[in-house]
Design brief:
The protein has twelve helices and 14 strands. It is α/β, with parallel strands linked by helices.
Length: 348
């Protein structure tokens, strides 16, 4: 089986995105499992390679067929959309936002056309993108819009911790209103499919409660008994192995021990905070991250999209100390999802 072509966006050019992309491609195992193609501005990658004295050369192309796909060569689908004279590390700008948005849009186009088998996204700055006139809350919403997808969800993965969200980029007040039976069932289905696509075998799913103590029989809110519990009961009738609502303050510790193959969080921070405590390790002595692990997968799309689950880290951009761990994991996850998709299409 031919190795999949993975399109990888540069992220915000003023961020650590270009640095971690190049570092990931210099990892021998990446070329062993896929054919990586960066999407963005070739000048940005030439600059970071020169600045950090990395052992790589850029092959700027405008057609996927012209990629070399060999170690030490960084193939870049060149969009020529960054003025290097105006680019400043760590600064929000419409230019940088526009360039990062263009890279995401292009990699989606390449995937829909079948020119790449999977996509991986580097970190973007939402304010920069909005200043460029693109009013999206994040990558997930961009992908949903340009693929015409209505039923989708964000899945975070780090070892045996898999967390999917009922809602993500909305206010906390709105998130409470979005806790509805049908949406919860939909997300349970997406999570179950994601677990299987990632090659895991534990399909038991834990569903978080929304309120403290999962509402404590209605003492602290009605959503747990009125929306979450009926969703869990219906999901069981559909054949899913699911628990809930489980108080969120105990659910994640159970998940960390492997009790669940995946968990459903009701809103963004409920899932992200415990997840990042698992994958993000700060070295107080060195005053830098030892590791930044975690993969963000958008479930429900007609194409494969994975991403690093960290931000732009403007404060360390261009310094050469950014960890490529999450980018390597995101590429590995994209390859795994691609293999699963090929098997589904060719059951043999």
């Amino acid at each position: 089986m031919q190795k999949p072509i993975v399109g990888i966006t540069m992220g915000d050019p003023a961020s650590i995105g270009p640095e971690i992309a190049v570092k990931a491609l210099l990892n021998e195992k990446i070329h062993a499992i896929c054919r990586p193609l960066l999407v963005g501005d070739a000048g940005v990658f030439n600059d970071i390679i020169s600045r950090l004295k990395m052992p790589a050369t850029v092959n700027a192309i405008t057609k996927v067929a012209d990629a070399a796909f060999k170690p030490g060569t960084i193939d870049v689908f060149d969009l020529k959309n960054v003025d290097m004279g105006k680019l400043a590390f760590g600064e929000i700008s419409a230019m940088a936002g526009g360039a990062s948005f263009d890279a995401v849009k292009k990699v989606i186009e390449l995937a829909l056309a079948g020119d790449v088998d999977a996509t991986v996204t580097g970190p973007i700055n939402k304010k920069s993108i909005n200043e460029a006139g693109h009013h999206f809350a994040g990558h997930t919403e961009i992908y949903a819009h340009y693929t015409g997808t209505r039923k989708y969800a964000m899945l975070l993965v780090e070892e045996n911790m898999r967390v999917i969200h009922v809602s993500t980029h909305v206010s906390l007040r709105e998130a409470c209103d979005l806790v509805k039976k049908d949406r919860i069932i939909q997300v349970i289905e997406l999570l179950h499919n994601g677990i299987l696509q990632l090659g895991a075998t534990n399909t038991k799913i834990g569903v978080a409660g929304l309120n403290p103590h999962a509402g404590d029989s209605g003492l602290f809110g009605t959503e747990d008994d009125g929306e979450i519990k009926p969703a869990v009961e219906e999901a069981r009738k559909m054949g899913y192995d699911v628990d809930g609502p489980v108080p969120a303050d105990t659910l994640f510790s159970k998940a960390a021990t492997g009790t669940y193959g995946g968990i459903v969080a009701m809103y963004h921070d409920q899932g992200h905070i415990p997840f990042k405590l698992t994958g993000f390790k700060w070295n107080a002595e060195k005053k830098q991250m030892d590791s930044v692990k975690g993969v963000n997968i958008t479930m429900g799309l007609p194409i494969i999209r994975t991403s690093v689950d960290h931000g732009t880290a403007f404060e360390i951009a261009g310094k050469g100390i950014a960890s490529p761990d999450a980018m390597v994991l995101a590429i590995e996850a994209a390859v795994q999802l691609s293999k699963h998709r090929i098997k589904q299409q060719n059951p043999a």
